[in-house]
Design brief:
- The chain has helices at 30-42, 70-80, 97-110, 125-130, 139-158, 218-224, 248-258, 276-288, 304-317, 330-333; strands spanning 2-6, 47-50, 85-91, 116-120, 165-168, 173-175, 185-186, 191-192, 207-208, 237-244, 270-274, 294-299.
- Helix 2 (70-80) runs parallel beside helix 3 and helix 8 (276-288) crosses helix 9 (304-317).
- It contains ten helices and twelve strands.
- The chain has one domain: Alpha-Beta Barrel (TIM Barrel).
- The longest helix is centred in the middle third of the chain and has 20 residues, at 139-158.
- A hairpin with a 4-residue loop joins strand 5 and strand 6.
- The two termini are 38 Å apart.
- The strands form three sheets. It has an eight-stranded parallel β-sheet with strand order 9-4-3-2-1-12-10-11, with helices on both faces. A two-stranded antiparallel ribbon has the order 5-6.
- By secondary structure, it is an alpha/beta fold.
C-alpha cells in the first residue's frame, strides 16, 4: 500500500487557518512547510503533494489571501527533509512548457531524484484575466493543451543525453554538443525547437501525477500519467480527506463555522471524520479489494492533521502498510524504471 499526504498551507478546509491549533503567522512561511513535510517524512510516507492554483484570492476577508508557489516550496523543503518524495502542482494553462521543464528538472536535482509534478489546468475567467486571455477555454481544449505541455516537457528532459556532460577541464569542453538534441515539436498549441538549457534530470523523467476526477482529463491521464494509469502496472491512488481523533466531529463543526461565506464545504472525494482505527479499516478493505494501490490523505486542517496521520493512522494500519525506503528515487519507490532517452544515439 502506497501512502501520500497532501500538505497545503492550512489544510483542505477553507476555515482551517482560523481554527484551534493553527498559527496564521506561520502559514505562508518556508518553516511551516518544512515542519509539516518533516512530520510526513518521520512516518515513512511515499510522498507529499503540494497543491497550488492560479485562482486569485476571494474578496471575503475571512478567506486565506493566497498561497506560495508550490514548485518553489518543494525546492525549499526537499533538501531540508530527506527520504520523502515531493510532488508540487504546476498549472500548465498559462505557463510555457520550456519554463516548466526547467523548473521541474531543477527540482529533481535539488531533491536528488525524489521529485515529481502534478500538471493542472486553469479553469476560471478570473485566472484568465490575470494573464490577459480572452476567457477560459472549454475543459476539453484546456486538457488537450495540457497533454501537449506534458509531451513537450518530457521531450525537453530527453533533449540532453545522460552522458552529455563530459566536464573536460583540460580541453575546455563541459558538454558534448553532439549529445544535445533539438526536439522540433510542432503541435496545436506550441512549437518548441529545444534543446533544454538544463541537463536531463536524475530520474530521466520526474514522476508525472495526474488526477482522474474530471472527464475531460481522462484521455490525458491515460496517455501521460506515471501514477494514475493501469492498476496492473502503475499504482492508482485515491484521495481521502481526513480529520482524526475522538473530538473530530466537534472540530469539523468548528471548521464549518469559521469558513468564509459561500465556501464550498462538500468533499470532492472520500472523507473520514473520526478515529484513526476507523480510517485504517477503510483503507485496509479498499486495498484488499484492489480498489486502489494506495491513498493520498488530505488533512482538513494543518499542521495538526499531519501528526494525526503519522501518530494515529499509521500504527493502526498494522502489517498492511510498511514505511517507504529512505533511499532510491521516487520512480523506484513506485516500481517504475528510469525511462530510456528517446533521442539517444548510442
Amino acid at each position: 500500500m502506497h501512502l501520500a499526504v497532501e500538505l497545503g498551507a492550512a489544510g483542505r478546509h477553507p476555515g482551517a487557518w482560523r481554527s484551534t491549533g493553527a498559527d496564521p503567522d506561520r502559514l505562508l512561511t518556508a518553516e511551516h512547510h518544512v515542519d509539516v513535510v518533516r512530520t510526513a517524512a518521520r512516518g515513512g510516507l511515499d510522498l507529499v503533494a503540494l497543491p497550488d492554483s492560479l485562482q486569485p484570492p476571494s474578496d471575503d476577508p475571512a478567506a486565506l489571501p493566497g498561497t506560495l508557489d508550490a514548485v518553489a516550496i518543494a525546492a525549499r523543503v526537499a533538501p531540508a527533509v530527506p527520504g520523502i518524495g515531493v510532488v508540487p502542482t504546476a498549472t500548465v494553462t498559462h505557463t510555457e512548457p520550456f519554463h516548466l521543464s526547467k523548473a521541474v528538472a531543477t527540482l529533481d536535482f535539488v531533491a536528488t531524484g525524489r521529485a515529481g509534478w502534478q500538471p493542472d489546468v486553469s479553469r476560471t475567467r478570473a485566472e484568465a484575466d490575470l494573464f490577459g486571455r480572452t476567457g477560459p477555454e472549454e475543459p476539453a481544449t484546456l486538457w488537450r493543451e495540457a497533454g501537449e505541455v506534458i509531451d513537450v516537457v518530457a521531450r525537453l528532459w530527453d533533449s540532453w543525453e545522460d552522458d552529455a556532460e563530459i566536464r573536460d577541464a583540460p580541453t575546455g569542453r563541459f558538454v558534448d554538443r553532439d549529445r544535445l538534441h533539438h526536439i522540433d515539436f510542432a503541435g496545436e498549441f506550441f512549437s518548441v525547437k529545444g534543446p533544454s538549457i538544463t541537463p536531463r534530470p536524475p530520474q530521466g523523467r520526474p514522476l508525472t501525477v495526474l488526477r482522474g476526477d474530471e472527464t475531460a482529463a481522462l484521455p490525458v491521464v491515460g496517455r501521460h500519467a506515471d501514477a494514475g494509469r493501469d492498476p496492473g502496472t502503475v499504482p492508482v491512488l485515491l484521495d481521502v480527506e481526513t480529520l482524526l481523533g475522538p473530538d473530530a466531529a466537534d472540530r469539523l463543526r468548528e471548521l464549518d463555522a469559521l469558513a468564509p461565506a459561500g465556501a464550498d464545504l462538500g468533499p470532492a472525494t472520500l472523507r473520514h471524520v473520526g478515529d484513526p482505527a476507523g480510517l485504517a479499516a477503510l483503507l485496509r478493505d479498499a486495498a484488499e479489494e484492489r480498489a486502489a494501490d494506495g491513498f493520498v490523505l488530505a488533512p482538513l486542517a494543518l499542521p495538526s492533521g499531519a501528526g494525526e496521520i503519522v501518530d494515529g493512522l499509521l500504527p493502526a494500519l498494522g502489517d498492511v502498510w510498511s514505511p517507504a525506503p529512505c533511499d532510491g528515487s521516487l520512480r523506484e519507490r513506485f516500481g517504475l524504471s528510469r525511462p530510456a532517452n528517446r533521442y539517444a544515439t548510442r
